[in-house]
Structures are given as structure tokens and as C-alpha cells.
């Protein structure tokens, strides 16, 4: 399977600011450099207790980080669907029908309005409840139906994060590896640096060494130097 990224319109679903960079920062850079359109739909953000020296990050800080990441990756647009503490880390309390309708047609970056050719979503095996809710809602929004009535993206991929491996049941290895150049990985690593409230020193799932090590591992599995792993949910040849 080969993809001419210059012809694609990518829509990335990111439960929180930084998930899109952790999961597909390399592909976003690779595709954008080839001439693709890249859009990011964030689902929620709020004040967050974390392991930073300060002990918390505010929604205002996270918005500043999004703007920096947007300029770095040259996104064509981005949107925050459900801002505020009511929904942040509580997406599993939002009825799936409401989240699905937002994704399918109500958001400014909805499937119906944007008509992406490629959709990237978090993997449903994540331990994080917001990631699980996002994955399931996007899956429902992209359900099979008559293509004359509803838009069907040609390629739907679930991206991985290092923390996804924290499961009680086995997690299957990605069945698609996107080859990255060193410049793509460098862009991903710098993108994560821009999320200063969320990046950490090693050992941590969001450290630079973790991201580089995962890229080396996935590349090795495909016989190349660097890669990003994905699970194919739909591929229309």
C-alpha cells in the first residue's frame, strides 16, 4: 500500500492537546510537507492536575500550546469541541449519540462538512477514558452506509501512544507502518516540546527518548530506520 499524501485531506481526532502529536506527529509533518491538508479536531481541554513541577496546568496554558503546535505543524485549521472542566477527563459521561453527532455533522470540522480522505483516531485500547470515548464515537460516526448519502473517508487509521501498552489484555501490534524521515521525527519531537506542560524527562511515556525509541522500533519492524505504527480500520483501494 502506497499513499500519495499530496492528494489527501487529513482529519486528526485528538482527545486532548498533545495526543495528535504523540500519535501521528511524524505523519502530520510528512503529509503536510508533501502538500496535504491537515486538520485537527480536539475534543476537550481543562485545568489539569499533573506531574509537572507546578503540579497542574490550566486550560489557558494548553490553548497557548495548541497555537504553537498549530504554527509548527502548519495545520490548515483546528477546533476545540467541548472545552472546560465539565467534559475534560469526563468524555465517557457524554452520551455517545451526542459525541457521535458532533463528530459526524455538528462540529465546524465534522466529517460531513470537511469530507476528509484520511481520518486518524486514538486506539480504543487506551487506558484513558477520554481516548476510549473518542475512539468509539468516531467509529460510530464512520459506520458503513450508502456512500451517496454519507461521506466515507477512504482511509481510517488508529494511532498508537506508548501508554496504550498499559493493558490487562494483549495489545496487537500495528498492522501499518508509515516510514518517517529523520526530519519528520525531529518535527514530532519539537512539537512535543511545544506542549511544555505535558512533556517529561525519561523515564516517562511522553519523554523524547520514549518517542524516539518507539519510532526506531516501528521502523525496524518494517525494515526502515524510523516509523509510526497504525491500525487500519478502513482502507478503500
UniProtKB/TrEMBL annotation:
<dbReference type="Pfam" id="PF02585">
    <property type="entry name" value="PIG-L"/>
</dbReference>
<dbReference type="GO" id="GO:0016811">
    <property type="term" value="F:hydrolase activity, acting on carbon-nitrogen (but not peptide) bonds, in linear amides"/>
</dbReference>
<keyword id="KW-0862">Zinc</keyword>
<dbReference type="InterPro" id="IPR024078">
    <property type="entry name" value="LmbE-like_dom_sf"/>
</dbReference>
<dbReference type="GO" id="GO:0016137">
    <property type="term" value="P:glycoside metabolic process"/>
</dbReference>
<protein>
    <submittedName>
        <fullName>LmbE family N-acetylglucosaminyl deacetylase</fullName>
    </submittedName>
</protein>
<dbReference type="InterPro" id="IPR003737">
    <property type="entry name" value="GlcNAc_PI_deacetylase-related"/>
</dbReference>
Amino acid at each position: 500500500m502506497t499513499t500519495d499524501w499530496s492528494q489527501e485531506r487529513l482529519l486528526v481526532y485528538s482527545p486532548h492537546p498533545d495526543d495528535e502529536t504523540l500519535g501521528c506527529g511524524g505523519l502530520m509533518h510528512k503529509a503536510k510537507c508533501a502538500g496535504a491538508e491537515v486538520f485537527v479536531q480536539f475534543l476537550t481541554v481543562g485545568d489539569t492536575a499533573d506531574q509537572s513541577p507546578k503540579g497542574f496546568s490550566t486550560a489557558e496554558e494548553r490553548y497557548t500550546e495548541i497555537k504553537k503546535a498549530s504554527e509548527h505543524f502548519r495545520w490548515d485549521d483546528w477546533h476545540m469541541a467541548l472545552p472546560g472542566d465539565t467534559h475534560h477527563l469526563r468524555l465517557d459521561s457524554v452520551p455517545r449519540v451526542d459525541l457521535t453527532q458532533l463528530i459526524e455533522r455538528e462540529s465546524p470540522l465534522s466529517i460531513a462538512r470537511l469530507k476528509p480522505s484520511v481520518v486518524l483516531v486514538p486506539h480504543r485500547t487506551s487506558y484513558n477514558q477520554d481516548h476510549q470515548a473518542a475512539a468509539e464515537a468516531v467509529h460510530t460516526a464512520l459506520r458503513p452506509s450508502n456512500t451517496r448519502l454519507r461521506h466515507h473517508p477512504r482511509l481510517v487509521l488508529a494511532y498508537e501512544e506508548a501508554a496504550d501498552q498499559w493493558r490487562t489484555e494483549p495489545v496487537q501490534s500495528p498492522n501499518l507502518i508509515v516510514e518517517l524521515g529523520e526530519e519528520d521525527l525531529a518535527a514530532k519531537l519539537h512539537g512535543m516540546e511545544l506542549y511544555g506542560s505535558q512533556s517529561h524527562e525519561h523515564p516517562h511515556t511522553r519523554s523524547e527518548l520514549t518517542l524516539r525509541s518507539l519510532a526506531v522500533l516501528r521502523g525496524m519492524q518494517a525494515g526502515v530506520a524510523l516509523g509510526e505504527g497504525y491500525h487500519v480500520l478502513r482502507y478503500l483501494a
